[in-house]
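Sanity check record (used in CI):
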Amino acid sequence: MTTIAWFGILVIVAIAAFFAGTLLTKKRFKHDELEQKAQEAQHALEQYRQDVTDHLADSKKLMAKLEENYSLLNRHFEQGKQLLSQEKALPNEPFFSKETTEQLHASLHMRDEKRRASEQTHDAPPSDYVEGESGLFKGEGSQSEQLKAS
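Expected output for Z-ring associated protein G:
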């Protein structure tokens, strides 16, 4: 075989090796990319699971706190209900002293007597009633009568 033939075979083998190498490296790059994406997806899934677990734990704590607050509120309402339902005993001591109470009773009796007396004299004019002319109007009536007459 001649040098040109060997050179031709070498070029053909080189071209075939080049294409085989590019195919293998492309597959290798795709494989590496897919593997990297799978690892990222796995990491994202683990992060999501951790977030959900944390959220559920926080929700559980909040529910426990809500239960505690509800029970405190319920106890508070029960105590208020008991306080309102209890009958309060009135103190035996009067609100006013004995002397004040006697004076109040006496003034009530005097008031009743004044009413009865005023009912008996209902035909009489009031005590501030004045017959005839008085005050500022004294004498004006006669002047107006004189003006009318003239």
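The helical segments are 3-85, 98-120, 140-149. If this sentence no longer matches the regenerated tokens, the check is flagged for review.
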